[in-house]
Amino acid sequence: MPKIDVHPDVYSELEDSRAWYEDRAKNLGIEFLDEIDRAVNAIQEAPTMWPWYDEQQGIRRFFVHRFPYAVIYRPTSTVIQIIAVMHLRRDPDYWKSRMTYW
Questions:
Q1: Cα 62–31–22 angle (5° rounding)?
Q2: Domain residue spans in the chain?
Q3: Band of the pLDDT at 5, cuts 50, 70, 90?
Q4: pTM, entire model
Q5: Which DSSP symbol is given to 79?
Q6: Shortest CA distance to 6 belongs to which of 29, 15, 93?
Q7: Exposure on the CB side of residue 84, measured as CA atoms within 13 A
Q8: What region, left, alpha or beta, does residue 27 occupy, with left being phi > 0 and alpha being psi -120 to 50 degrees?
Q9: How many CA atoms lie within 13 A of 96 on its CB side?
């Protein structure tokens, strides 16, 4: 199974979203993080199964269940690069500057 490599900015995205959901309902932030975990596990099990977001750059997108988010990632032969956990109603290209991280 390929290793997961998470861009450092993803952690603050996750924490901001978790806190926002937790402010709305008790344990909803934890449920959000659980859904992200499920998404990353599904991606790790079958990295090429999910649709292309940008085929030229090898970037794919996994839509998260229950929440309006997608995990933006790039699988390689040895690692899955998690680039963003993107809210679907925000600027869809905000994370593109992160591509220079790898």
A1: 115
A2: 3-90
A3: very high
A4: 0.94
A5: E
A6: 15
A7: 20
A8: left
A9: 7
Enter the tokens of residue 56. 């030229």
Q: Where are the beta strands (DSSP E) in the chain?
A: 3-6, 52-54, 59-63, 69-75, 79-87
Residue with tokens 């290793």: 3
Given this model, what pLDDT does residue 1 score? 84
Question: Where would I find the H helices in 46-94?
Answer: none
One-letter amino acid at 17 equals S
Task: Give per-residue pLDDT as tens, 48-72.
Answer: 999 999 999 999 999 999 999 999 9
Q: Does domain 3-90 have CATH number 3.10.560.10?
A: no
Q: 1: burial class by Cβ within 10 Å (0-12, 13-18, 19+)?
A: exposed
Are 61 and 70 in contact, with CB atoms under 8 Å apart?
Answer: yes
